[in-house]
Amino acid sequence: MSVSASGRGRHHTLVPLALLAGLLVSGPALATRCESLVRDPARQRSIPVAVTLPEAGAALPVVIWSPGLGGGLAQGRRYAEAWAAAGIATVQIEHPGSDATVYREAAALAKAEDDPAAGQRASAARVRAGASGGQVAARLGDVALVHALLAGGDTLGACITSRIDAANAGIAGHSMGAWVAQIMAGQALPGLMMSNLPPFRAALAISGSALAPAAALPTSAAGIAMPFMLVTGALDGAPENADAAARAANVKTRTALWPHLPAGDKYLLVLGRATHMQFDGSARNLTASIAARLLPATTDFWRANLADDTVAAARLKGFRPAEGEVFELR
């Protein structure tokens, strides 16, 4: 899909740091939100979106957000609100085919079988189908469509987006959505051909995966030249009772991509005992303790790379990890 970028000028209003710190933990102030459907006749898809805008400002930087498998517009909302408080617009996407219907249908399949083992197999197969390569490709198409509409000055369904500057766009996601961010950032995967990628300026992958075998990672990661932030936790996919060795092994798996990223504006943040679902960005799962660490760091990442905010860039580079956390730069 060919994508064009707007050439509108930039003007971004800085938020006082004391005010921003309070907003990131307690919630947004003065943000507008619109939920609607974006229709793609060519692929016969109706794509739910949510647009969160700062109350004031024009030529706003924007982040496109892709949730994890089974996720919808609730996932990522806390991120969108926090970023809006700092002058960053967000467009959340709910992807048909890998949204909440996956787990509803998986549960129905399990219930329909008389044999529990057969029901479990049917349920697991439905979940695997939701995370298939075809569904990843569909998500990539959704993101490309939304960015193209923004760049062309179109509305997103009923949501007015004229204050958004698609030339200053970032891509972010959690879990399966992190795969989207990694690929859009330039990670190459065997059998996946991508051309005319949206011109994102930065990418944030939360709870991502390597996506490629260990031997292929140097080549797979080589194309991620843009500013890139990788976030995970010691219990991101590991049982809560995992011992120290199991937690370390889990972090190593989650961060396998990190050592192979090209140097320059790359950031790794590992948050102590944070779990997989605590990272989904929903009001239900994102706890205050995780939000207090994650929201300021990701906001500074976007401010630095989408709004050319040198103060935010310096603050991010000087991030001090707390006990049990890891923060690295490349």
Keywords:
330 residues; alpha/beta; Rossmann fold; 9-stranded mixed beta sheet; 10 helices; 36% helix; AB_hydrolase_fold; lipid degradation
How do the helices and strands line up, and which of them pair or pack?
Elements: H1 17-26, E1 31-40, E2 45-54, E3 60-66, H2 77-85, E4 89-93, H3 101-112, H4 116-130, H5 133-151, E5 164-174, H6 176-185, E6 202-206, H7 217-221, E7 228-232, H8 244-254, E8 266-270, H9 288-306, H10 310-317, E9 326-329
Parallel strand pairs: 3-4, 3-5, 5-6, 6-7, 7-8
Antiparallel strand pairs: 1-2, 2-4, 8-9
Helix pairs in contact: 1-2, 1-9, 3-4, 9-10
Protein described:
Helix content is about 35%, strand content about 20%. The chain is built from 10 helices and 9 strands. Strands 1-2-4-3-5-6-7-8-9 form a 9-stranded mixed beta sheet, with helices on both faces. Helix 1 runs antiparallel to helix 2 (about 75-85), helix 1 (about 15-25) crosses helix 9 and helix 9 packs across helix 10 (about 310-315). The two termini are about 30 Å apart. It has one domain (about 15-95, about 135-330): Rossmann fold, CATH 3.40.50. It has helices at about 15-25, 75-85, 100-110, 115-130, 135-150, 175-185, 215-220, 245-255, 290-305, 310-315, and strands at about 30-40, 45-55, 60-65, 90-95, 165-175, 200-205, 230, 265-270, 325-330. The chain is an alpha/beta fold and about 325 residues long. The radius of gyration is 19 Å and the shape is globular. It comes from Polymorphobacter multimanifer. InterPro entries: AB_hydrolase_fold, FSH-like_dom. Keywords: Hydrolase, Lipid degradation, Lipid metabolism.
